Amino acid sequence: MADPRFYRHLGPIGLEALAGALKADLVRKGTRCEAVSDVASLEEAGADDLAFLAAPGHKALAAGSRAGAVLTTAALAEDVPEATALLLSRSPALAFAEAARQLVLPIGGVFPSADRPAVSPEASIAPDATLCWGAVVGAGAEIGARSVIGPGAVVGPGVTIGRDCHIGPRASLLYAHLGDRVIVHAGTSLGTDGFGFTLSPAGHVKLPQFGRVIVQDDVEIGANCAIDRGGLTDTVIGMGTKIDNLVQIGHNCRIGQHCVIAGQVGFAGSTVLEDYVALGGQAGAAGHLTIGRAAQVAGQAGVVGDIPAGARFGGFPAQPLMNWKREVAFIRRLVARKT
């Protein structure tokens, strides 16, 4: 559900009017609502929210959803609870993107203009916080005690920064909430759009991204990292996690507490790391998977499926570390015999 610090709600919109605007069929009104006011994921939707079901793999989420209305296809309709209003579309994701544009609007135009001070008068800044030369702070932003905003850094509208934080030069924080004692090094970007598109006859259509980036206490993020905000849920970086330079974290990722992520690691959207996970440099994860508590992933490994808690994996596709080492040794012996 969209955070009102960053988004303006345009609804409610009645179910029949919404179906007409989306060219969808309202085949059941359900009992939870007569109109929808917001968009949300199947997991988090409430009685006034619209969600969508486009993939068979999400049937279980739909069956347990408390959404007021769900957009889906005829083939998946039976998985939507009877109490939920049912709208059918050939392309639920495309219809949902249009519904999101009609229900929620990102708050824009609230950065200071060029002829005004770079710090919005509507921002709340602790008296002992430090803003270095060229820092920009948008309307509604909050900066806590003793925090430092480096030269040229951008703190977007509505962003909150806790106490004793340090934001490096040219860092950009949008649609984000930071806890206490967070360090963000130079050039890092938090809260940009997630990489979400759906294919239509006219080409790729952008899916609105209405989530946030939540950075908990004592996190350190290296230079020139990119952490996308969530689509409908939040991207979360857990307490005490340390992230090296040049790391990409896709939308809806959930990084646990006290994880260690080395340089040039990349996570596709909706990757989950449980607590105390460690990844070597240039490792990558395919997304929509879970790496279990205290697991270790070797450098340059390609993770394409879940990893159990405490396991050590390496190689591509990633597999138990000793299996991978034996494979490498066998291939070396095989090549040596042939040469």
Biggest beta-sheet profile: 11 strands, mixed
CATH class of the largest domain: Mainly Beta
Number of domains: 2
CATH topology value of the largest domain: UDP N-Acetylglucosamine Acyltransferase, domain 1
Could you give the count of β-strands?
A: 40
CATH superfamily descriptor of the largest domain: Hexapeptide repeat proteins
- Spatial extent as radius of gyration: 22 Å
Percentage of residues in strands:
25-35%
Query: How many DSSP helices?
Result: 4
Which CATH-level-2 architecture of the largest domain?
A: 3 Solenoid
Indicate the mean pLDDT. 93
Strand order of the largest sheet: 11-14-17-20-25-28-31-34-37-39-40
Q: Quaternary arrangement of the chains shown?
A: single chain
List the uncertain runs.
none
User: What class do helices, strands and sheet pairing give?
Assistant: alpha/beta
